[in-house]
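User: These chains co-purify. Model them together.
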Amino acid sequence: MMSGLHTAYPFPFKKRDDVDRSAAQAMRNECRNGGFSGSTSGRAPGFVQANLVILPKEFALEFATFCLRNSRACPLLDVTEVGSPEPSMVAPGADLRTDLPKYRIWINGKLEAEVTDITDVWRNDFVGFVLGCSFSFEAALAREGLEPRNVTMKSNVSMYRTTHPNIKSGPFEGNLVVSMRPYPPSSLPDVIRITSSFPGAHGGPIYKGKTDATPHCSFLGIGNLGLPDFGDPVPIGEGEIPVFWACGVTPQVAIETAAPAPPIAITHAPGHMFVTDLVDDEMRVGQPPG
Amino acid sequence: MMSGLHTAYPFPFKKRDDVDRSAAQAMRNECRNGGFSGSTSGRAPGFVQANLVILPKEFALEFATFCLRNSRACPLLDVTEVGSPEPSMVAPGADLRTDLPKYRIWINGKLEAEVTDITDVWRNDFVGFVLGCSFSFEAALAREGLEPRNVTMKSNVSMYRTTHPNIKSGPFEGNLVVSMRPYPPSSLPDVIRITSSFPGAHGGPIYKGKTDATPHCSFLGIGNLGLPDFGDPVPIGEGEIPVFWACGVTPQVAIETAAPAPPIAITHAPGHMFVTDLVDDEMRVGQPPG
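Assistant: Joint model of the two components:
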């Protein structure tokens, strides 16, 4: 805390000096060299993986404000300089045009293409946004004996469109998207404590559902928890309740539904995240100052 | 934590339902009606007072990013919609054009005028930024028997220009400005704990100096602690050390030194802050989820 200046990002992260970050850099280099275009799940373990959104400057202020207003769903980890593909806070030297395995290109809010490199479409008015992702707290949950079922099943987490509008910013609004992980009520205090200490990875749960023979969640407007809008179905066991977190698909929905829609936007392809130089523990807050 | 949705601003604040916010509203109304143009120090006690920066949209993205990169000095509490004077997150219904007692108008980075109302100069491309201020943690320190000396003396805190450049964003850089409060080393753990729980009010200290017969701080580039660049001199007692925090004058220096300078910028006049609807405790983090 006191040894030297720490003026940047007290939350959501603080970089340590004693971390070997070469595994993250190696992963990004593999993407850059065209040697890897798969899912990043389980890759470069321990390093923070992140959602990516790229927008023209004309839309960037209002998207940044959208993220600040809806920071549970859109925890900002880094914003690039206008025209620069380098996320200098979370991965100095990285290049957002090449260092992800797969990208999605959105034209006027419609998905247009999936590509493995965006160097050709990059413009000097582009701004890159790096947003936290729940992988960071899933690892922490597993370390404390609370591995989420989707991790145990090696499937994607269940994600649902809700009926709750986000807080609007300029053209961006859309409804909140949530992820769901089932837990017994007795585990909830620990689940809340652990995930709340990762505000840069969506933080604590936003809602807990009820034990229910025909699982649904009327508060969030989810008719059937067995039919997720994104990801895979994850069964809710006897005596478990569905626990919901704000989800990083939310900004993608905000871009799809933006009015006016941005003429172009680029995101990571689902599961094909940006691997940052940060380790999960550096995103953890509320620890004793050290 | 779990009763309903909390998707906005998990940090730096969370609004409670049971707070009577009429004293803050009354203070703002007095400013709006021209009935008050003095310092807000000690007014509407318990409510979060904030720094204000208003910039044209053309400069707003890069200023927002400047704040995110230098969040110790520039803790963002709210950003308005383009053209809107309403800081809807921290004070719904308030009007940034009238609700502060005094403003400064900066033309091309030079201080041009002090006025009590900016309705006449408001433009529909203006964006308002509301930034936290250390008043919030000073009250918390006092409640735990650690009242800062500047509060005891009823003077302004000592503030200094340092030689440490901020992290640049577009045209904004400048050097960090710090405030100083003297404490005996034995009080430091409590001082760190208390102030660190207010990241929205600059958070914990960024540096501690040495006990020194001729007080200076070479690390920060401060030649004589008895001659602050802003505010009043505050004596450092026998056996005390100077403790430094990032200071809300930093963004003002970044605007003065911006290259290119914004053609127009508006800030609060020193000590004439914006009184928000938030109470100090709502900015506190790291409490048990409730």
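Residues 57-69 of chain B form the longest helix (13 residues).
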